[in-house]
Structures are given as C-alpha cells and as structure tokens.
Write a structure and sequence with these properties.
CATH superfamily: Deoxyhypusine synthase
Helix content: 40-55%
Number of helices: 14
CATH topology: Deoxyhypusine Synthase
Number of domains: 1
Number of strands: 11
CATH architecture: 3-Layer(aba) Sandwich
Largest sheet: 6 strands, parallel
Strand content: 15-25%
CATH class: Alpha Beta
Shape: globular
Structural class: alpha/beta
Oligomer: single chain
Distance between the termini: 56 Å
Order of helices and strands: HHHEHEHEHEEHEHHEHEHEHEHEH
Length: about 350
C-alpha cells in the first residue's frame, strides 16, 4: 500500500530566472510539469542513451523539417554519432539539398495569396517559400546521379542513398545524405518516392531508364541491425512511415528468432504534435507499443507533444553543452559490406 508521504515525495521544481546553460534549464524543467517536464525528460533520456554501451540508436525522421532550418541539426547529429541509424521521409533528405547546393528557403506567411505565388513560381510550405526553379535543380541533381546507376541492379533505399551520398560528397555538397555516407550511418527511406526523389526517378523512367528500389531489402536489413546489435533505443521526430518502420524492425527480429524471444527497444523518446485518440500511428503512445512488443515495458521513455521546430534546436544545443563525446559508438560498417 502506497502512503500519502510516498506519493508526495517529489516537490515540483520552481524555475528561477538566472544565467545558466540550456542543459541546466532542461534538467530543472524535467522536475516541473506538463510539456515543459516532458521536454526535460526527452533531453535526459537522449543524453542517457549516449552513455550506454552496445546500444544502437535509431531515429525516425518525418515531415518536411529541412525547409524550416532544421537540416543542419540532423547533419550534426549524424556527424557526432548521436544517432546510429536513420529512417526518414524522402522530403527531409532531399529538400536539404537546395540549401546545401547554395540556394535558400525564404520566410513568408501562411496568409499569402497562393494564386500570386503560383504565377511567380514560388512554392509555399505553410509560412516558408521556395523558388520553384531552384527546387527543380535539386530534382535534376538527383536525376543526374541516378542516370549513372546500373538499371539491371535492384537497390535498397539504403544502397541508393549511400551511393548518392558518395556522389554528393565528391561534389562538396554537405547534405544529410552526404554526412551519412562519410560517417557510415545507414540511412533508409521507405517513403523515398514521396518527394523530389520520386519526381526525379519518374522523369528518368520517361527517358528510358528505370531505377528499381526494393523496400523489402530495407526492412530485412533494419531487422538484421536490430538483431545483431541486440540493445536498441529509438528517437521519433513525428511519426508516419519512419516511426512504424523502426517499430516493425523489432517484430521482424523477434519472428526471425522463432518468436520465442522478445528484445524490444530499451529507450524511446517521441516528439509529436499528433494525439492518440484518433488511432493513428503518428499519435500512438509509446505505452501502446508495449502491447506489440516493440517498446519494453520497463523502457526509459517519454513523449513530448510539441512542434519539432521548437524542441529539436533546444535539445540539440543542450546535448552540445552536456555531452563532450559519445564513447560507445556501435560499429555498423558490416552493413555496407554486402
């Protein structure tokens, strides 16, 4: 029987305004309430993951964050190896190319006259603008790369993106894909064609060259990573296909082991604006995932209901302050040897 004294054993931390590091503020916020508390918890769990031995950190990256000034944060996470495997939407790992090529996205307004923007060949992402002609250049870059691939070979998205990363690195285009190539971070996109990649590859097919991508190879490889590294943690920025792909890797791993042993994710953090009552995957709680054997019942986990464009820069800066170097980086070089 829990006593009243035990229930009331942790006082709320009252935040005082003073000079301090962002990481120090988040540590105090983790002792407050509501989403401020969750912001602090997400930071602390991520920092804890980076201290673990033999833990592979998967990131599910959704949405179109690269257009909002976030892509260099993801590139930095790859560079520092604060993530080990990324499953992304096609948008996040194509739209960063525009700026990596030397162009820009522009501040706009969600109250714009979209007919006027159409006439001007300006594309709108809520309150961010892109020059349509510059956007086509990133698609043309993808098409030019893909035109040099072997049409007789069937690629996984990871193989395709690894080769693209090599191509970009040689050109000095320091995108997320290029950094993943340099750091040997496996990068997957099971929704690859729902982006500029789809436009580029479709146009290339019309010119007589079809590049084939087998998504089953991706799922099998992700399951192998989960199986061989055993201990896993997950970071979900949003939900959608990237989140479910990483979740399913644990199921495939379990089934491949005869279904007799469950090794769900030991750590899990999620930053989302979707709520669970609609029944969709993006809003699905980490607790619900326990019923599937995807997240461990005793996992260190936290869900932050917040726009990632608010939370991600704050958490990244706090990690930069508090984590000098990740010592226990898993070696995934074997992934690229097949």
């Amino acid at each position: 029987m829990v006593t009243k004294k035990e229930v009331l054993s942790k006082p709320v931390k009252t935040i005082e305004v003073k000079e301090r590091k962002i990481s120090e503020l988040l540590n105090e916020m983790a002792q407050t309430g509501f989403q401020g508390k969750k912001l602090g918890e997400v930071f602390n769990i991520w920092a804890d993951m980076l201290k673990q031995k033999n833990l592979t950190i998967f990131m599910g990256l959704t949405g179109s964050l690269s257009t909002t000034g976030q892509w260099k944060i993801i590139r930095w996470l790859v560079e520092k190896r604060y993530v080990d495997v990324i499953v992304s939407t096609g948008a996040n790992i194509s739209e960063d190319l525009l700026e990596a090529m030397g162009y820009h996205y522009y501040q706009g307004t969600h109250l714009a006259d979209d007919n006027m923007l159409l006439r001007m060949k300006i594309d709108r992402f809520y309150d961010v603008y892109a020059d349509e002609y510059q956007y086509r250049k990133l698609e043309n870059l993808i098409m030019k790369f893909a035109s040099g691939l072997d049409p007789q070979k069937v690629y996984s998205s990871r193989e395709f993106l690894y080769l693209f990363g090599e191509y970009l690195d040689k050109k000095g285009i320091r995108s997320i894909v290029a950094e993943a190539y340099v750091r040997k971070v496996p990068l997957y996109s099971l929704a690859l064609l729902d982006s500029g990649y789809g436009v580029a590859l479709s146009l290339l097919k019309r010119k007589g060259k079809m590049i084939r991508i087998d998504q089953t190879k991706d799922m099998e490889e992700l399951a192998q990573i989960a199986e061989r590294t055993r201990r896993t943690g997950v970071i979900y920025i949003g939900g959608g296909v990237p989140k479910d792909t990483v979740q399913l890797a644990t199921i495939i791993k379990s089934l491949s082991m005869g279904g007799k042993e469950e090794t769900p994710h030991e750590y899990a953090i999620q930053i989302t604006t979707d709520s669970p009552q609609w029944g969709g995957l993006s809003g699905c709680t980490l607790e619900e995932a326990v019923s599937w054997g995807k997240i461990a019942s005793d996992a260190k986990k936290a869900t932050l209901y917040c726009d990632a464009t608010i939370a991600l820069p704050i958490i990244a800066h706090a990690l930069n302050e508090s984590v000098e170097k990740r010592e226990n980086v898993p070696d995934l070089s074997w992934v690229f040897e097949g």
